[in-house]
Design a protein that fits this description.
CATH architecture of the largest domain: Orthogonal Bundle
Order of helices and strands: HHHHHHHHH
Strand content: under 5%
Number of helices: 9
CATH class of the largest domain: Mainly Alpha
Distance between the termini: 59 Å
CATH superfamily of the largest domain: Tetracycline Repressor, domain 2
Number of strands: 0
Largest sheet: none
Radius of gyration: 19 Å
Structural class: mainly alpha
Number of domains: 2
């Protein structure tokens, strides 16, 4: 019988290894070692390193989407929702970005995984668009193309995350950065 605890240990150690080394440089042996199990045990739970990667990615995406849906469905203003999303993006999504980017390198791009990441991106974009549409309907935001504005908002946040990933140490505070980014964005879309 397979143990959920072992599966979770594999997922946790795989997340660490993928973030540190990327998908293509990660070794199943290292994932097993960090999980405190034999390499062969991993194959009782996952058929390949790529399957482990997809499982890690989907688990984090599901958690992220649940957090985003909670923000979208909350009783706060659309402006507060955008700020909450920016905080989430800068604080929590950086892990997901590190995992996802580990699979995408120009010379080693894995087409099916790249397409999966684009689908995830669109799902997140549609949640941001829902917040923006709500703000337009309430008269808080001017008339805008919500999907395009969501794409722009994601882009602003992503460039900050990418910059942080390229730095050895983060030199900015996520809370104040979220407020600055949101402030600039909201100044452009307020009614």
């Amino acid at each position: 019988m397979l143990s959920e605890d072992k599966r979770q240990a594999i997922m946790r150690s795989a997340t660490e290894v993928f973030c540190e080394k990327g998908l293509h440089q990660a070794k199943v042996e290292e994932i097993a070692q960090r999980a405190g199990i034999a390499k062969g045990t991993i194959y009782l739970y996952f058929a390949s390193k790529e399957e482990i990667f997809r499982s890690v990615l989907h688990t984090h995406v599901d958690e992220l989407l649940a957090a985003i849906k909670a923000i979208v469905g909350s009783e706060i203003t659309p402006e507060e929702k955008l700020l909450a999303f920016a905080r989430l993006q800068l604080r929590e999504i950086s892990l997901l970005v590190r995992i996802a980017y580990s699979a995408v390198s120009p010379e080693l791009i894995n087409e099916p995984m790249y397409k999966e990441m684009l689908v995830i991106q669109k799902r997140i974009q549609s949640q941001i668009a829902a917040i923006l549409t709500e703000g337009v309907e309430q008269g808080v935001f001017r008339q805008i193309d919500a999907m395009h504005a969501a794409f722009c908002f994601q882009g602003i946040l992503r460039i900050h995350l990418e910059s942080a990933l390229l730095e050895a140490t983060r030199t900015w505070d996520e809370e104040s950065m979220a407020e600055k980014i949101c402030g600039l964005f909201l100044d452009g879309i307020r009614a």
